Amino acid sequence: MSTSLYQCLIPALNLSNAHKVCEVACGTGNGVPILLNHLPSDAEIWASDISDEMIAKVNQRQLPRTHTAQASNDALPYEDNFFDRYVANLSLMLVPDASAMLREAYRVLAPGGTAIFSVWGREENSTALGYFEQACREVIGENFAKKRSNFYLNNAHETMRMATEVGFQNPHYFYAASPMGPIGIEESVQCYLDTPHLAGIKKQSEENYNRIVERLREIVTEMDRRNEILMFEGVVIVVNK
Ligand SMILES: C[S@@+](CC[C@H](N)C(=O)[O-])C[C@H]1O[C@@H](n2cnc3c(N)ncnc32)[C@H](O)[C@@H]1O
């Protein structure tokens, strides 16, 4: 899902004249080769993530012209105005304080630079993630409902407003959708089993975990009967400094 979203970010980033790219919350580094592919041959990428394990995975890839750092999105180890591009694929909705992350993005980006933030899109168009939240709400109920939904930034106008509040200009947005392919019921359920969200729930309660998996299997079976394919949609915010 995130790889296909990276591909959608490329036209909006105008990488052909970029030199210094900041990628935050880079995960395993999936996006770095995609960005490198579109950058001039002397451009460099600074990829960071809060997780040591993720950074170790990026380092294992031995990617050219790529510097890595373990850092939180709201406290980046870079000078002011250092980058001409800033990329945050699927992380703004995860940090405790989205405005603090936006402020830090603004600080490290040079005037004239472009920043891009993608977040989970509309729940009805993101069945791959929406069904998971639905199953959790149904099984765990109140406690899960109290937790902030990862869809909470999917109102593009509100998220653009937050970005302009910290100083960004010229906000634009688009929705980008990707299908997960007709992968069948068991493989669809398997996609959920591999997520850190479900692993976290399993740690807390084996019983809830089993009930959520069962509910997901029912939901996915119903979806398959309707001949639907699991979908993911991101909403992408593009701004300038
Ligand atoms: C959904 S993954 C996205 C990874 C990558 N950008 C992609 O699209 O494949 C979210 C990533 O955000 C990282 N993350 C979560 N909170 C963070 C924070 N406060 N600062 C930096 N990274 C964070 C996680 O470690 C994880 O690698």
Helix and strand arrangement:
Elements: H1 2-13, E1 20-24, H2 31-38, E2 44-49, H3 52-60, E3 66-70, E4 83-89, H4 98-108, E5 109-120, H5 127-140, H6 142-146, H7 156-165, E6 169-179, H8 185-193, H9 196-204, H10 206-225, E7 231-240
Parallel strand pairs: 1-2, 1-4, 2-3, 4-5
Antiparallel strand pairs: 5-7, 6-7
This protein binds S-adenosylmethionine (SAM).
Short summary:
The protein is an alpha/beta fold and 241 residues long.
Strand order of the largest sheet: 3-2-1-4-5-7-6
Overall mean confidence score, pLDDT: 93
Helix content: 40-55%
Contiguous uncertain segments of 5+ residues: none
* Helix and strand sequence: HEHEHEEHEHHHEHHHE
Count the beta strands. 7
Any guess at the CATH architecture of one domain? 3-Layer(aba) Sandwich
Overall SS class: alpha/beta
Work out the helix count: 10
Distance between the termini: 28 Å
The backbone outline, from C-alpha atoms, is globular
Strand content: 15-25%
> What is the CATH C level class of one domain, in words?
Alpha Beta
CATH superfamily of one domain: Vaccinia Virus protein VP39
Q: What do we call the CATH topology of one domain? A: Rossmann fold
Largest sheet: 7 strands, mixed
Each distinct ligand: S-adenosylmethionine
Radius of gyration: 19 Å
